Amino acid sequence: MTAYGGAGPLAGPARRVGQGRLAVALLSPTFAVLAVVIAFPIVAAVWDSLRVTTEGLNADGLVVQGERFGGLTNYTNLFSGAAGDRFRTALGNTTFFTVTTVAIETVLGLAMALLMHRAFRGRALFRAAVLVPWAIPTAISALLWRWIFATDGVANTILGRQVLWTADGIQAKFAVIIADTWKTAPFVALLVLAGLQVIPREVYEAASVDGATGVRRFFRITLPLVKPALLVAVMFRMMDALRMFDLPQVLVGAREPAVETLSQLAWDEATNLRYGPAAACATLLFGYIALAAYVFVRLLGADLVGDREARR
Amino acid sequence: MTHRTPTRRGTSRTAGTRVLLARTGTALCLALTLGGCGSDSEPTATTDGRGEITFATGKDNTGQLQTLVDSWNSAHPDERVRMVELPEAADQVRQMLVQNAQIKSKSYDVVTLDAVWTAEFAARSWVVELPKDKFDPASFLAPALETGLYRDRLYAAPWLTGTGVLYYRTDLLAAAGIKEPPKTWAALADACAAVAKLPAGKGVACYAGQYDKYEGLTVNFSEAVQSAGGTVFDPAGKPQLTTPAVREGLSFLVDGFKQGRIPSKGITFKEEEGRREFQEGRLLFHRNWAYVYALASAADGSSKVNGRFDVAPLPGKDGLGSGTLGGNNLAVSAFSERQASARDFIAYVTSLETEREYAKKQSFPLSRAALYDDPEMLQRYPYLAVMKEAIGRAKPRPAAVRYGDVTAAIQDHVSAALTGQKSVDQATTDLQAALAALTG
């Protein structure tokens, strides 16, 4: 957007002001909608997370509710007692899934992209096939994997032993990682492939003339040149993995300590009508994702909106 | 993979009005915000009006419900009923009804409540009390009626009911020379041992119910406890998990896994997994609901045990055991403005005549006792006699205002015991503490 928002070559000061007004007029409806659908829920969630609800029963057994400003009570409760254990487990699971799935998917996606980049017979078919897992809704693919991981499902038949994948435990973590990798490695692959296809062929030809080996060409040419695309893919995946919800929820179930993520925890609290703790958990997750994205951009310099190109 | 932030907006704190915006998605949020988020008005005298009403119920898989509604509509042109089908899964239905109640929406007049939600919906004043005399309470099956009561007041009229029963393989028991289904856990274990010695018993596991970590586990745990003579909550609503009966009940399940009576994959069983296992002929005894009967009797080849099984009440520690009650009840939404029509419609649906018509067309057991003695019904559904006996011995699941938390706590600790992470003593002690904290 930035690249086109600035002035064209003919712009004088007057024209610039006119364009600015037009831009404001054209964009304000968008910003108004964004304020309602993004800013308002976020502010409302933060406000909710600061309120504490107390409940009691009156003589007729009817619920009497009180609500007051509780400051950071909901947040401190997330770190203490049994609820604290659950929150820490969810935080650990969320982080663990993010690190493992994104790492595996990056390597796999890169490999798939390199493969698709080569000219070979049936390449179009392969590309289309790779898209299929990404096209299936997560909840549906989670169901699919639940059948595969059923006690007499395909996975156990191939392994020749009875692993209880969807029961709690380390195997449930594996099930989630496998299913998530299957689903989203193609996403990384396609983004990386787009990056690969803009690398000029001459660069490789020059390298060949200079006598560079294949491995050297990969590390000195392909990887640096595909890095912007790769970083964007990894960043998207990271933010997606941090808010993972439907895959563990459908594949393994709610309230399973082995796979429960922060999103699931917030959802579970909300369905049990504890909106304060739910909002606190969701707000922390929001902060976590924002922080992770910020650190990622700062450390690795992922160029998300093409700013640097525009500034040049 | 959208993550939705739960939010809520208090509009009138004195009235305790609360508006749930989130989780219904941003679109709804926007609509509600612009539309003023429902009404803040307290229920007034006008709530007892008449007119067209809506009937919110879970997905009607039988397709017969509309017929009942149609015949009401032709008799009551001024009070026509519109049926709204909610999702199939019970927890999704609960979510929709809860959201609906929180924005005090008038969109549903008659709501279908799962048997265990009555306390929560009644205590939160989301449904109104029903006049008992209008529904002829004495002719309901007594345990089914109990699921509609909260503090001895009727909040939901019993409609569909049912309890867990024991499916067993008649052919294998006969081959082992056993004449009748087991009445005790010891007899069940003996029968398994006898069948295991037969060539035909090869590859057939002994027993399984529902042990995955979900509502079914609460059901199976409560049944084991009741069948050992214990109770999860006493009549005053206090948890009673440190009694010997509770430990024996839980031990029945834990030892079942340890000693291989329950196959180890049983820990992943919900209703359907276990049903398939039984239908494939890989289970001698299976605890499940009435719906299995029709499927396991299918003669189209989908069931390998067709004609070779029967049902019995659940066995217990020293005699027949006790199941927990499932089922659906009908209640009037507290936010309905046409509660008089809503009450009349509930009385119509739960009347003996309507239930008889409905029972002829689908196999879910209904709430009026007379249907279980009706010769025509017995001929149609031979298991009704067993079902009546089982329902007579059944108890509702814990009636707790915070049922969601109660069942979650039960699932957590019982699951830990079944998977060997906790000893039976440790699990019952921890569960007692958890439930005591929840019921205050």
Automatic annotation (TrEMBL), chain A:
Gene3D superfamilies: MetI-like (1.10.3720.10). One of its GO terms (cellular component) is plasma membrane. InterPro entries: MetI-like, MetI-like_sf, Sugar_ABC_transporter. GO terms for biological process: transmembrane transport. Residues 91-297 form the ABC transmembrane type-1 domain. Keywords: Membrane, Sugar transport, Transmembrane, Transmembrane helix, Transport. It is found in: Cell membrane; Membrane. Its main location: membrane. It comes from the Bacteria. It holds the Pfam family BPD_transp_1. It is a multi-pass membrane protein. The keyword Plastid does not apply. The chain crosses the membrane at residues 22-47, 96-116, 128-148, 218-236, 275-297. Belongs to the binding-protein-dependent transport system permease family. This is Multiple sugar transport system permease protein. It comes from Plantactinospora soyae.
TrEMBL record, chain B:
The keyword Signal applies. Pfam families: SBP_bac_1 (PF01547). It comes from the Bacteria. Keywords: Signal, Sugar transport, Transport. Gene3D superfamilies: Periplasmic binding protein-like II. Belongs to the bacterial solute-binding protein 1 family. This is Multiple sugar transport system substrate-binding protein.
